[in-house]
């Protein structure tokens, strides 16, 4: 693809397993639905935080409402932890983010923790030839795929998602 052609989030960050979708609902409803979609797909929901609230609290600056939902699949997490000799723990849990990008429009996005670990050199030396690593990718990837399919099939899925604003 030529450099001057616009690329989607998923195209721009394919090497880290990027996924995104848009939902037409308020922020809190989107956060609840996203969390439930991932739990239904086999992930736990061990943690979450709001970077926008934290920044507002500490700096007084306003950002669009954003909630990071920590997700984890214990089966994939066990493999990743073993394969990285525990080094992946600094990045646990995996995350999915819900960010308000317009009135009543929420952007949901995720990157694959195992793919990020490959990019930063914390994965096994040759992840493509590690059966265990590929199993972790398959477990986590199928769950993420299922959660995004659920969100995209819901009545609040945006038909025509807006392009993210340039900052």
UniProtKB/TrEMBL annotation:
InterPro entries: DUF302 (IPR005180), TT1751-like_sf (IPR035923). Residues 52-111 form the DUF302 domain. It comes from the Archaea. Pfam families: DUF302. This is DUF302 domain-containing protein.
